[in-house]
Amino acid sequence: MLYIASSRSTAIAEIRAWKGAVVAFAEIAIKRRLSLIDLSTLIQIKSPFFVELLKWKLELRALLRRLGSDLSRPITPYEAGETEVIYRPTQLLALLIRASGYDGFIYPSAMGPGTNVALFNPDDADVKKVSYTRVKRVAYFAEALSDFDDVHEEGPYDFALTKK
């Protein structure tokens, strides 16, 4: 697969570059018209049956939104050894998207301001230019926890992880 960020700032955020890091950017050109599924926006779901199946539409829309969110979920340091379990649902989604005839998918960036694209076939893109940039500054934003917030970081799949 080839992972593409929508902007330089998104790419820097995705790789979690630090102050002083040198980052290589590859500008690419897509070789042909691609069929991508966009999981970064609300998807219009058309029922193959009747309008009465509104619940079906809403549940499918919520599932696709959740899977799009899961695709952009960063792995925290304490989860590093559990990536296989954490990423399994999104890997299955990618297989389903590919089997449905799509060339890739668009998903939101959890780390940066834009979106990312995953292409199943890297040969669908040509590298046109490579440039290098040194990261001069990194910004972090924080928010105080309320008395009701849990101080432990927990992800949506913690129930499936083996605690050590």
Which stretches of 5+ consecutive residues score pLDDT under 50? none
How do the strands line up in the largest sheet?
1-5-4-3
Share of helix among residues? 25-40%
Structural class: alpha+beta
Helix tally equals: 3
Account of the protein in words:
- A hairpin with a 6-residue loop joins strand 4 and strand 5 (115-119).
- The model has no long low-confidence stretch (mean pLDDT 80).
- This protein is an alpha+beta fold and 164 residues long.
- Helix content is 26%, strand content 22%.
- The chain contains three helices and six strands.
- The protein has helices spanning 8-14, 54-71, 83-99; strands at residues 2-5, 22-30, 36-38, 104-108, 115-119, 125-134.
- It has one domain (2-160).
- Helix 2 (54-71) packs across helix 3 (83-99).
- The chain has a four-stranded mixed β-sheet.
Q: Helices, strands, pairings?
A:
Layout: E1 2-5, H1 8-14, E2 22-30, E3 36-38, H2 54-71, H3 83-99, E4 104-108, E5 115-119, E6 125-134
Parallel strand pairs: 3-4
Antiparallel strand pairs: 1-5, 2-6, 4-5
Helix pairs in contact: 2-3
